[in-house]
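Attaching the record inline, Q. Sequence:
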Amino acid sequence: MSGFQLKTVPLLSRSALDRAEELRSDEAARRAGWGQARLLRMNRRGQIRLAGSELVFDAAVDLAPEPVPSAVFLGVVEGSHVWAVRDEELSGNLVDLRSFGAALPFDDVVLSLVTTALALLNWHDRAGFSATDGTPTMPVKGGWSRMSEAGHEEFPRLDPAVICLVHDGGERVLLARQQVWPQGLFSILAGFVEAGESLERCVEREIKEEVGIDVREITYLGSQPWPLPRSLMLGFAAVADPEQPLAFTDGEIGEAYWFTRAEVRAALAAGAWGQGEPVAGVDGRPALSLPGSISIARTILESWAAE
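Structure, as predicted:
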């Protein structure tokens, strides 16, 4: 069997958040809800505060008596408005999306709040001036857009990227390690979509550039937001010939190997990289560790390994 489907929805795609889009243009309603609103504080490293295993929310009115321009409106949870704001003096038990997302029993709503806050705040950090007219911009609509002094409205940027599991149509999958990654950490291949390029063509190009092989039977699997800093990951699978020589032409990939389904299953069972012992290499292949479940890469690998 050469094709497969995701067995579960990627972790960061399980959004159950009521984004209450109708409130973004209703300043009076946002002001009215501010008195009972909850506030999520996040520093520029994307860290938030925990109390035990619970995410800490403050009362929004403790920040100011009414909504401040620097706060972004995330949505409505259990009848209360939820906002997020940058706080560089944040202290206590701090964690980020990578470290807590898969390890703690947060529900889908909380994960959606953190993911959305991270994406919006990252965008605001980089959008102080209009890309159209160069004038300063100010947040409007609860932080869901910015307006320049010249009256041009701009919206949050997303950078689409493909991520593809390359397999041989049978029992082997191609996994690679970037030059900057620690030894033993391998994942599937990914890259950003270029201007004027389809997603399928991006899959072909990125894999050719990174490991030098041709792929066919490209199939779409699913997507996941990845606000680090502002990507949308679009998951694919493709088939390739394992006898075609690998060539690391763009310098991004340090090494890549065809691993067996049994090796992948063992590495998945051992836990994510940094949380368990790598699976010992066989037949000249290195020890293998895989990404954590916060990444769509793990969901794709789990689905392929389950076939």
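The domain at 11-126 is CATH 3.90.79 (Nucleoside Triphosphate Pyrophosphohydrolase). Residues 179 and 254 are 4 Å apart (CA to CA).

More tomorrow.
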